[in-house]
Amino acid sequence: MVALTCFGTIVAGVRCDGHVYYARLPVKGYFRIQDFFASTRPFGTPLAPICLQYFLTVFALVAFPAEDAFNFLVDLLSYPNLVGFYFTIAYYVTGKSQVFHAAIAIGVWLLRRRRILVGLAPSKYRARNINVFIYLLSALFLLIMPWVPPEPGHGDVSFWYATYCVAGLGVLALCGVYYWIWIVFLP
């Protein structure tokens, strides 16, 4: 039963993420090779995005020792749960990053400050500063704690315990480089 549930989740994730991230976004012009990814030929489905999703998922599963692959991917999902869209490149993740949770909390305060400087009235729907502060603290806690080494013999993988942290932040850095090339350098 567990295997069938996992299989169904994987199939749904590959189909949904392949369609949304690789088929709908190219239609809007977010990728350089948008004609290839936006095509629904020959079967009326986004075959190229689904195949890309499949091969990258298989790569993520094959790249690590069998006993560690599952734990690594679960860890990778949880730490920075990296940026839904960005980390679909390596695994179909549909979450938000703690990096972005922290940025949202800081952004709330920056937007409030800008509204005051411009002379706009405060919004009717406001989160209390204490709530935003607690939200920021929880995001920072979830970013920092995975770097603290576990007690000897209590790690869930046979390789370095923070590999998933480095992998997640590395993907985020690659996405930043891609953004810089696409938005700043090329135009």
UniProtKB/TrEMBL annotation:
One MF term in the entry's GO annotations: transmembrane transporter activity
Highest taxon above the source species: Eukaryota
Coiled-coil residue spans: none
InterPro entries reported for this sequence: AA/rel_permease1
Subcellular location, principal: membrane
Residue spans crossing the bilayer: 47-66, 86-111, 132-149, 161-185
A UniProt-annotated Pfam family: AA_permease_2
Compartments where found: Membrane
A GO CC term attached to the entry: membrane
Membrane topology, record value: Multi-pass membrane protein
Keywords attached to this entry: Membrane, Transmembrane, Transmembrane helix
Name the UniProt record assigns to this protein: Amino acid permease/ SLC12A domain-containing protein
Taxonomic classification: Eukaryota, Fungi, Dikarya, Basidiomycota, Agaricomycotina
